[in-house]
């Protein structure tokens, strides 16, 4: 059985970059958003959506829509259990340790839970209360719950299904840029008296990020279609994408304002805002995607394989959970200062955390072994079906 190792390695790299971003060390700022105005979260969500569209649409074509839906529900249940376990770890071990050490990095993180412990626990399990760092899995679950309906709709309406989905998704993204989330929260609060404050419902604007998810799902769906033609990008598309990617890279690392592209100008910074998935950020991500599709196969042939990244990419859900356990523990013990330790100590800390993530991934990577007949295309020809990979490749495995 042959794995789609390039996707595994990319997902492993996204996990490493997430860890560097979340772990408070000297490396956080220099290595945050290393490729331009795009973070590891965008790359990981897009890759996960692509693999979900690729794998689950094949379930539907081979075994029927109901089989595909069942596969999605099983995956969602597994991710929900992992999220619930992380919440319990935060609310018990980390909270107790943070209170004992009087560590603001923890007490601020769970301030609403400390003020309303019963409601915090219940609404946390309902995926409504989302403390910082624990807000990506609820969004991921939400997208996974919608995906089987979207894929079934696209399969039923082959000619216009996806255009309709993406037009609706694009409209939601535009609405998110103009306060759709806040408006809906205000309406729900007036109707139900929801006690969870808006700022405690996660930093990611799901109404914006769904556009990225469904775009990746669409791409994966098209690559799984029988007799799909390989993706071939014209230089009229590639050259502008390379230019945008290079401008983003230069601006990010050599601009005068660091990770705030427009300095103190809050309004203009929204154009590259991560949580809203601002338009310039989306443009930078598309440009990087075009560059990866055009040049990635060549790089994959010449660059050495990094096996430990592939290991973490194959077991991305356990590795992701391991990284959060490590980050929360570090925050509870050392706080959130990025400069309190010398460089050598931060290097050692980062190495230990990455080794912990690799060990967890290595131990659990066979837990989701897939049927050997499940197929996935190799990246050098995204229209063929010569390589096979486990269905666990779809999303957070």
TrEMBL record:
Residues 369-397 are annotated as: Disordered. Pfam families: OpgC_C. The chain crosses the membrane at residues 12-28, 34-56, 77-99, 136-154, 160-176, 204-221, 233-251, 282-303, 315-335, 341-361. InterPro entries: UCP028704_OpgC. This is Acyltransferase. Keywords: Membrane, Transmembrane, Transmembrane helix. It comes from Pseudacidovorax intermedius.
């Amino acid at each position: 059985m042959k794995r789609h190792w390039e996707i595994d390695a990319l997902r492993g790299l996204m996990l490493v970059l997430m860890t560097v971003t979340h772990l408070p060390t000297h490396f956080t700022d220099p290595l945050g958003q290393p490729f331009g105005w795009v973070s590891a979260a965008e790359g990981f969500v897009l890759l996960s959506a692509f693999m979900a569209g690729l794998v689950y649409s094949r379930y539907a074509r081979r075994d029927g829509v109901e089989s595909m839906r069942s596969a999605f529900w099983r995956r969602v249940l597994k991710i929900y259990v992992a999220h619930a376990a992380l919440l319990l770890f935060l609310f018990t071990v980390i909270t107790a340790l943070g209170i004992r050490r009087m560590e603001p990095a923890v007490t601020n993180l769970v301030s609403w839970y400390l003020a309303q412990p019963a409601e915090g626990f219940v609404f946390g399990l309902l995926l409504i209360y989302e403390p910082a760092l624990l807000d990506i899995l609820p969004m991921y679950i939400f997208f996974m719950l919608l995906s089987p309906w979207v894929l079934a709709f696209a399969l039923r309406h082959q000619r216009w299904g996806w255009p309709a989905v993406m037009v609706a998704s694009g409209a939601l993204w535009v609405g998110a840029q103009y306060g759709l989330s806040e408006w809906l929260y205000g309406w729900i609060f007036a109707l139900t008296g929801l006690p969870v404050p808006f700022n405690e419902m996660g930093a990611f604007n799901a109404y914006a990020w769904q556009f990225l998810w469904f775009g990746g799902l669409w791409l994966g769906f098209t690559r799984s279609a029988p007799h799909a033609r390989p993706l071939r990008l014209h230089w009229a598309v590639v050259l502008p994408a390379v230019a945008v990617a290079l401008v983003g890279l230069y601006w990010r690392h050599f601009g005068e304002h660091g990770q705030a592209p427009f300095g103190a100008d809050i309004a203009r910074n929204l154009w590259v805002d991560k949580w809203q998935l601002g338009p310039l950020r989306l443009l930078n991500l598309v440009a990087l995607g075009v560059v990866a599709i055009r040049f990635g196969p060549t790089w994959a042939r010449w660059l050495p394989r990094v096996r430990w990244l592939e290991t973490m990419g194959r077991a991305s859900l356990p590795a992701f959970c391991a990284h959060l356990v490590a980050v929360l523990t570090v925050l509870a013990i050392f706080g959130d200062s990025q400069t309190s330790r010398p460089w050598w100590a931060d290097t050692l800390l980062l190495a230990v955390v990455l080794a912990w993530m690799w060990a967890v991934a290595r131990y659990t990577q066979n837990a989701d072994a897939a049927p050997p007949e499940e197929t996935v295309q190799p990246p050098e020809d995204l229209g063929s079906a010569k390589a096979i990979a486990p269905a666990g490749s779809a999303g957070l495995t």
